[in-house]
Amino acid sequence: MTPHLHRAQPYVLALFRIVVGGLFACHGAASVFGVLGGGSIAAGTWPGWYAAVIQLAGGILVALGLGTRLAALVSSGSMAYAYFTVHQSHALLPLQNGGEPSAVFCWVFLLLVFTGPGALALDNLLTARTPDRQDRDHTQEQSSPVAV
Length: 148
What we know:
Elements: H1 2-33, H2 48-64, H3 68-87, H4 94-97, H5 100-115, H6 122-126, H7 131-143
Helix pairs in contact: 1-2, 1-5, 2-3, 3-5
């Protein structure tokens, strides 16, 4: 069963990225545009409006798999900031201070920084290897003294 799981891993990671990015973008859209049951935040209001823009843009980029690692890093940092400046002062634990979404999004996006976008990402199209680059990389791998 393990080989089947390994083959599915990039696609499951892609589905995870798309769902999480979409949910994050919805939070941003609710705050920026006042849609989806959210109230809009006045443009330029610190830090709420900027956080909402990061949520909207970061969520869209992560869902598309475009600049995934950078978008996920900025999104993770935004959620860490939200947790420690907005929620932590009310109580220690996320369950007590209402900071569960911030904490979960922070760690989920940090995970995507390290795992990358998986399959079905626009990043993969942009970094497609040309034949010349494949030959050069293959030559470097053969001359490397350490096999991985």
